[in-house]
Specification:
The protein is mostly helical. The chain has nine helices and no strands. The protein has two domains: 148 residues; 90 residues.
């Protein structure tokens, strides 16, 4: 599985390089502007805002790119070679999902915590303004930092992990259907998309019927595992090699 993850990583290396380059560029711009700005200055907030926004955008780009590569592997003859290796297909599928998940989370956390560190730098650079109760921005920033809880962040990360796994498993299952059972069927792509919508609606409906957050996320994990097993079965038994 590690070999497959390494192979998938190499296919995504350009996106990862662009992400790191974007992070470095925004950070350099921020550090250059910091000595010439104050916490009252709105111009210093622009690169800071862009750092948080870039993290969000890159998170979705990595997920979309991972889904696109999975679909392309099933549609192209060269992609089929991955599934003809001695590595069991469930391991290949696990490697694909795990790499997309880990890379999206790592890059997002990198942007997020760098943004928080930059907020600290901004306060240190203009600490005298924090005593001015007439300024809204210093008070907002100070409130965010004072109420930043490690436990809250850990909980949000856990919730995000469950949601991403559930989403990827559902999407991969729908793509697997379109490229196996529905491969040569008329409107096969449309049918698989409607199946994805149906699973998503079912997921949302059941989640709203469960009063406990813990049970809700257990259900999300269970549905994700079901879709993962279904995708593995389709690729093992039905893929047209």
């Amino acid at each position: 599985m590690l070999t497959t993850m390494k192979y998938e990583f190499m296919k995504n290396r350009i996106l990862y390089a662009i992400s790191l380059g974007t992070l470095a560029l925004l950070q350099v711009v921020y550090l250059v502007m910091l000595p010439f700005s104050s916490i009252k200055s709105s111009n210093i907030l622009i690169p800071l805002f862009l750092i948080f926004m870039a993290g969000t955008i890159i998170f979705f780009l990595i997920i979309i790119n991972g889904i696109s590569l999975f679909s392309r592997d099933l549609r192209s003859k060269s992609g089929y070679l991955v599934y003809m290796t001695p590595t069991p297909i469930p391991f290949i599928l696990s490697a694909k999902i795990l790499l997309v998940y880990l890379s999206s989370i790592i890059f997002t956390l990198g942007f997020f915590f760098l943004g928080l560190a930059d907020l600290h730098l901004l306060i240190l650079a203009g600490g005298k303004y924090l005593k001015d109760d007439n300024d809204l921005m210093p008070r907002v920033i100070k409130y965010l930092l004072d109420n930043f809880s490690t436990a809250d962040v850990a909980l949000k990360l856990l919730q995000g992990a469950v949601i991403v796994f559930n989403f990827l498993s559902t999407v991969y299952f729908s793509i697997g259907l379109s490229q196996t059972l529905l491969r040569n069927k008329r409107f096969g792509g449309l049918i698989s998309f409607l199946i994805f919508i149906a699973i998503t609606v079912f997921n949302s409906f059941v989640s709203h019927q469960i009063s406990s957050n813990v049970l809700t996320y257990i259900f999300h994990v269970g549905l994700g595992v079901f879709c993962f097993i279904g995708t593995s079965y389709l690729l093992v038994r039905k893929i047209d090699l």
